[in-house]
Design a protein that fits this description.
CATH topology of the largest domain: Immunoglobulin-like
CATH architecture of the largest domain: Sandwich
Order of helices and strands: HEEEEEHEHEEHHEEEEHEEEEEEEH
Helix content: 10-25%
Number of strands: 19
Distance between the termini: 55 Å
Strand content: 35-45%
Length: 357
């Protein structure tokens, strides 16, 4: 196969892998400072759950389109969490594990006249390679974030605390946090913030950040899917995609709330025969279930909870076939020699016949 053909195959593979990546998602509640905007441009999440200790680890990878470098977001959790920096390489490994295997097939597409002495070289070259309304339980810096763990007894007070600390706040913020305050959940406020006043608005750009592992106890493992109403309405007509990787003792399914249908489609399910590099907990012998949610607008009215799936069978995506059109190499120099020889023999026979008449 020619080097040009190899390049075309490489481009096709790269394009197919790029298509598998998430492109636009929101989770939790982004909270930019006043007069700025922030939109989650790319997101994936890893959830590991230990059934014995009821401990969930939630790791979120996201990049943001924003006109400021001073912004944050809030994650609600049902119990007091611990925060630590996560290894970003874990998502690359998860993508490798769950992507369709690539199968190359060769089909004859024509004839390639090649001199015999060049065939060996060409074939060798074809190689594929009660508190107070808001209590601050803890403050720390982790993975590039200024983090605070908050307890609140009043949605309005929590909204005011966020506003006084540079987060976006509005009556809708109080409405969004109200169900969590009622259930006595805690809040992890994470802020990417330079010291000093918030910068003036600038041209929108993509901003990334470190990965935070939020670990907490919960009876029901979940993904924080619920969004403010404006976030749901603001995504109408846009393309959204969210990848969720869940590692636990068995294959799971997701529901919106207790039992409503979730748009996330199961794309992979298999027991792991080795630890996933970078995962926050041991994963060997555990089951990895992967989901992709492309709902837009997203019905983020509740969390996505995970339960035992209706089947324990493995689910592996079918191979992605890349067809390589091969031309049959015909040794043109040999053809010419043989053809010339046959023509000479035919001519000689013809002359002898003419003489015998």
């Amino acid at each position: 196969m020619s080097l040009r053909r190899l390049a075309r195959v490489g481009i096709a593979v790269a394009a197919s892998l790029t298509a598998l990546r998430s492109t636009d998602a929101r989770a939790c509640m982004p909270a930019p400072p006043p007069n700025h905007f922030v939109r989650v441009a790319d997101e994936a999440a890893l959830i590991t759950y230990d059934e014995a200790t009821k401990t969930e680890h939630f790791v979120r990878r996201a990049s943001f389109e924003t006109d400021t470098t001073d912004f944050g977001f809030v994650v609600p959790v049902p119990s007091r969490p611990t925060l630590s920096e996560a290894d970003p390489s874990v998502f690359q490994r998860l993508e490798e594990l769950t992507r369709p295997p690539i199968v190359y097939s060769h089909r004859i597409s024509g004839v390639d006249p090649t001199p015999l002495f060049l065939m060996t070289f060409a074939m060798r070259s074809a190689v594929v390679s009660a508190p107070a309304p808001v209590t601050v339980l803890d403050q720390l810096t982790v993975a590039g974030y200024d983090a605070a763990i908050l307890e609140a007894t009043s949605p309005t007070a929590l909204s005011e605390w966020l506003s006084s600390h540079g987060y976006a706040s509005s009556p809708e913020t109080a409405e969004w946090v109200a169900p969590y305050v009622e259930k006595k959940w805690l809040f992890v406020a994470l802020r990417i913030a330079p010291k000093g006043a918030a910068p003036a608005p600038s041209a929108p750009r993509r901003v990334g950040s470190g990965l935070v592992d939020i670990a907490f106890r919960t009876e029901a493992p979940f993904y924080p899917y619920r969004e403010p109403a404006s976030a749901r309405a603001g995504t109408a007509g846009t393309t959204r995609s969210l990848a969720v990787y869940y590692i636990g003792g068995e294959r799971v399914k997701g529901t919106l709330g207790a039992s409503a249908t979730w748009a996330g489609a199961t794309t992979f399910a298999k027991r792991l025969d080795a630890d996933v590099s970078g995962a926050p907990t041991p994963t060997k012998g555990r089951v990895l279930t992967a989901f992709v949610d492309r709902a837009s607008p997203r019905p983020g009215t509740d969390e996505v909870y995970f339960h035992r799936a209706d089947t324990s069978a493995d689910l592996v995506p079918p191979p992605m076939e890349i067809v390589i059109g091969d031309k049959v190499p015909v040794p043109i120099d040999v053809v010419l020699v043989v053809g010339g020889g046959l023509a000479l023999v035919a001519r000689t026979i013809r002359k002898r016949r003419d003489r015998g008449r």
